[in-house]
Amino acid sequence: MNDISRDLIYLLSCAVNEVTPDAARVQAMDLEKVWEFAKFHMVTGATCIALERAGVKRKEFHEALSKAVRKNICFDLERQAIFDAFEEWGIWYLPMKGIILKELYPENGMRQMSDNDVLCDADKMEEVRKIMLARGYTKKGAGKGNHDVYLKAPMLNFEMHRSLFATRHAKVFRDYYADVKRLMIKDENRGYEYRLSDEDFYVYFTVHERKHKDFSGIGIRTLLDRYVFLKEKGDSLDWNYVEEQESLLEIKEFEIERRKLAMNLFSGETVPELAAEDEIILTEYLGAGANGNMDLLIQKKLEKMSKPRFVLECFFPKMEYMKRSVPFVDKWPWLYPAGVVFRWGRILIKRKGIVSRVLRALNKKQNDKKV
Amino acid sequence: MKLNPSFLTHVTKGEHYLIAMGDVKFKGIVKNNKTAAFIVECLKQDVTEEAIVKRLMEEYSEADPEIVRRDVGNVIGKLRSIGAIVE
C-alpha cells in the first residue's frame, strides 16, 4: 500500500465513520494525487466530505460532491417515476445494489453511482422497454444477456435485469439464483415492489463482487460498501444462514477474507499495516478502479487461455458474445462473418483506443513473463 | 406565483433539495434549510408572498413578523433569480 492509497483509505474511513480527519495529516497529503485516485475509484464525494470536515476546500472535490448529490437525486426522482409506472402496469421489480447501499451511508453524495440496477419480471421486458422509451430513454445494445441498458442524457443509466446472472457466469451462481423469487420479500406499501432480506442482500453482494473479481476486477468502493453494510447491519444478520448460503455458492472463504479486510481497513482510527495475504488482496482492488480495468481483464483471461487463443477470440468472438454485441447476428446467426466485420468497423470508428489498450496490456503480460 | 414545474423537490436523509430538471438555465441543486423548505413547499400551489408569511407565522407563532417577512422575501428573491418561480 503506497502513501496515496493509505491517504485515500484514511479519508474514506473518516467519511463513513463521521470522524474529522487529523488536520496536520491532511495538510501533508498530495491532494492532486488523492484526487486522481479518488476519481479512479469513484469515491470523490466521500473524500470531499472528509476533507471539508478537516477544513480543506478544494474546487474539484466540491464540484464532484455537488455532481454526486445531484446525480443521486436525479436517479431517485426518475426511479420513483419508473416504479410508479411499473405499479400501474403490474410489473414486479426489485431495486438492487447501489440503490440499497447508498441509503446506509451517512451523508448524501457519499456513495456515488454510475447506474441503477433493478431486477424485474423477465416476462414483461417488452413492457419495461415501452415505459423506458416513453420516458425518453434509448436502449443500448442488442437486448440479450441478463439485462437491458437504458440511457438518458446527460447522466441517467438504468440496467433492467431479467435475471441476476447470464449464461457466461459461473454455473453455481446461475443455479442458485435461477429461482430468485424464493428469496424476494414483498414491500408492504407497494403492490409490486420487492426486496431481499439483509442476509440475502449481503450474500448477493458478495457473489456480485466475486463475479467482478473473476472478470475485470473491482475497486475499493466495494470494500467500503462492505464495511458500511456490516457497520449498519452486521450485528443483526443471521450469520448461520449467511454462511450456509455462502457454502452453497462456494464463496465462504472469499467472503471471510473480504470481511476481514474491509473491517481492518475502515474501522480503526488509523490505516493498519496489513498481513501479507491481505496486502495482496488489497492490491487487486487498488489497481482495478470502480468498474475494473482492461489490464486485469486480460490478465484473468490469459490465466485461462493461451495468448494466440486470446487474440483469436478477440478477432472471432464466441457466438454467444456476438449475439449480444451485434443485433443482426442474434436475429440471423449465419451472418456471423458479417457481424465480425461490423464489430471491427464499430471498434475502429467508435472505440479505437481500446485496440491500443489491449495491445499494451498484452505486451505488459509478455514483459511480466520475461521478468 | 408558484414553483416552476421544471424544478422538483426531493427529501433524502432528512435534507430538502430543490433541483432543476429539463431545459432551464440553472443546472445546480439547492439544499434548503427548514425555512426555505417550508417556503418551497408552499410554492407548489399558486400562492402570494403574504400568504406564505401568514403560514409561517402560524407555524412559528413566536417569530418576529418583520424577520419572517424579510426572510420570505430573501428566499423568494433567490428562487426568482434561478428561474424557480413562475408568476
How are the secondary structure elements laid out?
The complex is a heterodimer of chains A (371) and B (87).
Chain A: H1 3-16, H2 23-27, H3 31-40, H4 44-53, H5 59-89, E1 93-95, H6 98-101, E2 116-120, H7 125-134, E3 138-140, E4 147-152, E5 156-161, H8 171-176, E6 184-186, E7 194-196, H9 198-213, H10 220-233, H11 239-249, H12 252-266, H13 276-288, H14 294-304, H15 307-315, H16 319-325, H17 327-331, H18 336-350, H19 352-370
Parallel strand pairs in A: 2-5
Antiparallel strand pairs in A: 1-2, 3-4, 4-5, 6-7
Helix pairs in contact in A: 1-3, 1-4, 4-5, 5-7, 9-10, 9-11, 10-12, 14-19, 18-19
Chain B: E1 2-3, E2 7-12, E3 15-20, E4 29-32, H1 34-42, H2 49-59, H3 65-81, E5 85-86
Features:
heterodimer, A: alpha+beta, Beta Polymerase, domain 2, 8% strand, B: 87 residues, Arc Repressor Mutant, subunit A, three-stranded antiparallel sheet, two-stranded antiparallel ribbon, 5 strands
Q: Can you put this structure into words, describing what you see?
A:
The complex is a heterodimer of chains A (371) and B (87). Chain A has 371 residues and is α+β, with helices and mostly antiparallel strands. Chain A folds into three domains: 1-57, no CATH class; 72-292, Beta Polymerase, domain 2 (2-Layer Sandwich); 296-370, no CATH class. In chain A, 61% of the residues lie in helices and 8% in strands. Chain A has 19 helices and seven strands. Chain A has helices at residues 3-16, 23-27, 31-40, 44-53, 59-89, 98-101, 125-134, 171-176, 198-213, 220-233, 239-249, 252-266, 276-288, 294-304, 307-315, 319-325, 327-331, 336-350, 352-370, and strands at 93-95, 116-120, 138-140, 147-152, 156-161, 184-186, 194-196. In chain A, the strands form two sheets. In chain A, strands 1-2-5-4-3 form a five-stranded mixed sheet. A two-stranded antiparallel ribbon of chain A has the order 6-7. In chain A, β4 and β5 form a beta hairpin. In chain A, α1 packs across α4, α4 (44-53) packs across α5 (59-89) and α9 (198-213) runs antiparallel to α10 (220-233). The longest helix of chain A has 31 residues, at 59-89. The two termini of chain A are 22 Å apart. The model of chain A has no long low-confidence stretch (mean pLDDT 90). Chain B is of the alpha+beta class and 87 residues long. Chain B has a single domain, classed as Arc Repressor Mutant, subunit A, CATH 1.10.10. Chain B is 43% helix and 23% strand. Chain B has helices at residues 34-42, 49-59, 65-81; strands at residues 2-3, 7-12, 15-20, 29-32, 85-86. In chain B, the strands form two sheets. Chain B has a three-stranded antiparallel sheet. Chain B has a two-stranded antiparallel ribbon with strand order 1-5. In chain B, a hairpin with an 8-residue loop joins β3 (15-20) and β4 (29-32). The mean pLDDT of chain B is 93. The A-B interface holds A 66, 69-70, 72-74, 76-77, 106-108 and B 8, 10, 12-13, 15, 17, 19, 21, 28-29.
